[in-house]
Design goal:
- With about 325 residues, the protein is of the alpha+beta class.
- About 25% of the residues lie in helices and about 20% in strands.
- It has a single domain, classed as HIT-like (HIT family, subunit A, 2-Layer Sandwich).
- Helix 1 crosses helix 4.
- The relative contact order is 0.17.
- It is an enzyme of class 2 (transferase).
- Belongs to the galactose-1-phosphate uridylyltransferase type 1 family.
Amino acid sequence: MPEFRRDPIIGRWVIIAKERGKRPSDFVIQPERRVGGFCPLCQGNENTTPPEVLAYGPPGRVPNTPGWTVRVVPNKFPALVIEGDLDKQGEGIYDKMNGIGAHEVIVETPDHDQTLAGMPHDHVVQIFHAYRDRMVDLERDQRFRYIMVFKNFGRAAGASLEHSHSQLIALPVVPHRMQEEINGTRKYYDYKERCVYCDIIRQERSQNVRVVCENEGFIAICPYAPLAPFETWVLPKRHASSFPSLDEPGFQALTGVFLETMRRLDRALPRVPYNYMLHTAPLRTPPMEHYHWHIEIVPKLTMIAGFEWGTGFYINPTPPEEAARYLREMEID
């Protein structure tokens, strides 16, 4: 029988429709059609992007030239612009303000054909360092209240370029989705005097049916009420509300679990389109006892259609217990 499952953080209900029979092996992933031609993110084409705001490379490298390992540039076609004032206004019952923000592209590798799942551990650590360094720098701008880091992989997940990259958008408001999550964790904390994510980690480790992998510092789980098949969360075991507060041993531990998770997903669902999002506390907030930063990875395996848009319920044909077991059984190098 199908099940309604309630997300314990924001109260959203999800339908786990087992009768739809979508076992992991049932998903047909359409291969990405290779698009040839010029790539502005490839090494040697630095002059075709806006000037870099951050790059890692050998000492003495000249900015905006080859030799980098990870490079961050402003988006050439930004969703928001960094120059100007917010200029908040009202038009009767309606509110508006200027589209002020920062929109940057993290070019994850100089190699056009390399995917995140295939990158060495130390290189992925650099990518996480780039996220941290750009977040710390942009936090100095008092206009910004939240920074969202995300990755779209594959055209079905919204990627317009094949070259491996992620994006960062600094916003003048806290997004409703994040505020909903923060409010949900505060309600739980006010009632139980514990962090809901810490409780989730304790219960998942105890039951051990939705755990994908873990190490001393981090754990990857398929959440109890996932929006999509094979949705996976990566969480620090030690409570922390802000990603930039991570220390170097933490970056190493995060990369270990994150990279193993990505390799298991890639082995189970080769080159599946996916999105991942870094959920962290709003800028300039003191440590929150009720909120716990994490990364959410959502493969693009199902369609959002009329029922989902009309009701807010999501139908997931693969129970997370089955998805986690399948991922654990994958043999990876």
